[in-house]
Design a protein that fits this description.
The complex is a heterodimer of chains A (138) and B (120). Chain A is α+β, with helices and mostly antiparallel strands and 138 residues long. Chain A has 3 helices and 5 strands; from the N terminus they run E-H-H-E-E-H-E-E. A 5-stranded antiparallel β-sheet of chain A has the order 1-2-3-5-4, with helices on one face. Chain B is α/β, with parallel strands linked by helices. Chain B contains 3 helices and 4 strands, in the order E-E-H-E-H-E-H. In chain B, strands 1-2-3-4 form a 4-stranded mixed β-sheet. In chain B, helix 1 packs parallel to helix 2. The model of chain B has no long low-confidence stretch (mean pLDDT 90). The chains are: A alpha+beta (138), B alpha/beta (120).
Chain lengths: 138, 120
């Protein structure tokens, strides 16, 4: 068995991004959570870390689905600079429940290392970052 | 695994029963944006029944039994907060009971600790 590259050990586990495109409807968020669990587990995150990634991705997708005016949402999982980066976008046009979004931001503040949510009236986007560097410390 | 590939343990279910002046609403599975609408409807039914109940059948509290709840997100927390506000308008308490550590953590992070009970 080969030893992972110490500089980019997680890249070998996700050598290219995984891109999902699925309907921006509430019932499909569960499928994205399933993928999030699989990716986080593959990258070696502990159980708590896997759960945090599941919740973070769910929060991002919930905001996309609320804002989406039909059509698909696109979700991408990638490893960038020793971090798991999950990004998503959809065509927007519907109002977001700002109270729910405030709760979502409070959750994301704690369970991600960084996140952004942006809505420019035509496209809603999110980007979540979960560092992986602590997995490689002895 | 069900025909759509879903783990039965993840399927959200909500069941309600009365124990005297308390309505016990048992939650199981994953409570997300999709399922929060079902929870809101179930809790609205409980409050409607309380309003139209017979004398002597007053409702004092709604307990959300979260012992089998495996996931909650901002939409789930928001649905419970809205139901709690509606219940308080009717002088009915609403709180989580039997909360697992994972669910407690998210509810606390979400700033909704008032939904938790010490005995949870």
């Amino acid at each position: 068995m080969s030893t992972p590259d110490a500089a980019h050990p997680s890249d070998a586990r996700l050598p290219s991004p995984i891109v999902l495109q699925l309907p921006a409807e509430p019932e499909f968020i569960r499928l994205v959570r399933l993928m999030a669990s699989g990716v986080a587990t593959r990258l070696g995150l502990p159980v708590d870390g896997v759960q945090d990634v599941r919740i973070a991705v769910d929060e991002g997708c919930a905001t996309l689905v609320e804002a989406a005016r039909g059509g698909p949402m696109t979700i991408e999982f990638a490893v960038v600079d020793d971090s798991l980066v999950v990004s998503g976008h959809a065509a927007s046009g519907e109002p977001i429940d700002e109270e729910r979004l405030n709760v979502s931001r409070q959750i994301l503040d704690v369970i991600t290392d960084d996140y952004t949510v942006s809505n420019n009236d035509t496209t809603i986007r999110f980007r979540l970052v979960r560092g992986l560097e602590d997995l490689h410390r002895g | 695994v069900t025909t759509d590939g879903t783990d039965p343990g993840e399927v959200f279910t909500v069941t309600t029963r009365r124990e005297g002046a308390v309505a016990v609403v048992r939650l199981a599975g994953e409570l997300d944006l999709h399922e929060s609408k079902r929870l809101s409807a179930a809790l609205a039914d409980v409050l409607h029944d309380a309003t139209n109940g017979s004398p002597g059948e007053e409702l004092d509290a709604i307990e959300l039994d979260a012992g089998a709840l495996t996931f909650i997100d901002s939409a789930g927390v928001r649905a419970v907060l809205l139901a709690r506000a509606a219940a308080e308008d009717q002088r009915i308490a609403l709180r989580f009971v039997k909360v697992t550590p994972a669910i407690r953590r998210i509810v606390e992070i979400a700033g909704a600790s008032e939904l938790l009970t010490d005995g949870g």
